Amino acid sequence: MVNRVILIGNLGKDPEVRRLENGAVVAKFSVATNENYKDRSGEWQTQTEWHDIVVWRNLAERAESSLKKGMAIYLEGKLTHRSWQDQEGNNRRTTEVVASYFRIISKREGGSDYNSGGGGYFPSANDEAASSSGSSSQSSSEGKVNEQTATSNVAPDTADDDLPF
Q1: Are strands 25-38 and 44-56 parallel, antiparallel or unpaired?
Q2: CA 103 from chain center: how many Å?
Q3: Does this model's pTM top 0.70?
């Protein structure tokens, strides 16, 4: 059986980091992913999903020092569910991704992020324009730009061949 999650998205806020009594470090943050689609009237719509992410120990310390709101990241982990009682005694349940790996794809500078930098969320209006013009060369050249964008702003301590795309 497999429980594996892979996300590419933008951080919704800086990581919140806690140090537990036993010395363990945990960081929590949210990641937004977008899906573009055409509605019935032919207009492009973007659906944003928010994912709660948890990282532990060394990865939490790395998140604290390197992740900032708006950054585009690639992450891998597993889906988990937790139950607890709130202050009023109500039973609550949450779903989180416990990440085992993350990599910064790009930093948000001047409003530019992974999505507006030519990468990431498929399909897009640009894909439609490329296919309707009958030109596949535009689409393949965009793919090369996307690949360069995805690898140009990564942390120097990680190898490029770790990514599955």
Answers
A1: antiparallel
A2: 9
A3: no
**Segment 147-161, tens digit of pLDDT:** 433 433 444 444 455
Alpha-carbon dihedral of residues 47, 26, 13, 145, nearest 10 degrees?
-60
Helix ranges (H only) for 7-135 are 57-66, 125-132
Domains, the chain, with CATH or none:
5-158 (2.40.50.140)
Whether residue 11 contacts residue 29, with contact meaning beta carbons closer than 8 Å, is answered with yes
Q: Which of 9-13, 102-106, 126-130, 137-141 has the weakest average pLDDT? A: 137-141
CA separation for the pair 158, 76 (Å, rounded): 14
Q: Which of 48, 53, 51 is nearest to 16 (CA)?
A: 53
Q: Is 90 helix (H, G, I), strand (E, B) or coil?
A: coil
SS (H, E, C) 18-37: EECCCCCEEEEEEEEEEEEE
Interatomic CA distance for residues 50 and 68, integer angstroms:
16
Q: Which amino acid is at 68?
A: K
69-84 burial code (b ≥16 CB/10 A, e <16) = ebbbbbbbbeeeeeee
CB proximity list for 104: less than 8 A, separation 6 or greater: 66, 67, 71, 72, 73, 153, 154, 155
